[in-house]
Design brief:
187 residues, mainly alpha, two-stranded parallel ribbon, elongated
Length: 187
């Protein structure tokens, strides 16, 4: 089981448990902790990204894949703790579950993906592979923006459906740990 799939399954179980379980009579302002990153996703890229073309690095493709895949794994590892903190601050029984899922995805799942995009862009693509790497990064940013715009989500697992194009591009290039859909996906 991949890291993101585990996170999304835990999120579904936590939310289901919170909805089924008895609610806490105490109300605090913990709801505001872990605010969503909708504004991050909205401002992350302007339709097409402008001057976002990836720079050329001196890395070989093998070195690039090692660094980029490691960056994706690193970003995924902190997400489970983020999920736990988010759920504690934003109990799932305080709003419709579909809205809670959408908010959780914006707050917990999308920020690490946005960080992956930035980190891969900072690494730079191997000479001659800039177009392939840029195509993946642009597709992934588009996918992040689509998911960030969702107002409700029936289950966190459907998010994977939004990352098909970028997932295919990632796997085709060898960025298997950066794919967020399909059999090798990291959701």
């Amino acid at each position: 089981m991949t890291a993101r799939l585990a996170i999304l399954l835990v999120a579904a179980l936590v939310a289901a448990g919170a909805v089924v379980g008895c609610g806490d009579d105490e109300e605090g302002d913990a709801q505001t902790a872990g605010a969503t990153s909708a504004e991050t996703a909205e401002g992350a890229s302007e339709e097409g990204g402008g001057d976002t073309a990836i720079a050329t690095s001196s890395l070989s493709k093998k070195e690039f894949l090692k660094e980029a895949n490691a960056a994706c794994v690193k970003r995924q590892k902190g997400a489970l703790g983020s999920l736990t903190a988010y759920e504690e601050a934003n109990p799932a029984n305080e709003k419709p579950l579909e809205e809670w899922y959408a908010d959780m995805i914006r707050a917990v799942i999308l920020p690490p993906i946005e960080e992956e995009i930035e980190e891969i862009r900072a690494i730079g693509a191997p000479a001659g592979d800039e177009q392939q790497v840029e195509a993946f990064l642009e597709a992934e940013q588009k996918d992040v923006e689509e998911v960030a715009a969702l107002e409700s989500v029936k289950t966190p697992l459907v998010v994977e459906d939004h990352f098909v194009e970028s997932g295919d591009l990632a796997r085709e290039y060898g960025l298997d740990r950066c794919s967020h859909s399909g059999a090798a996906g990291t959701f």
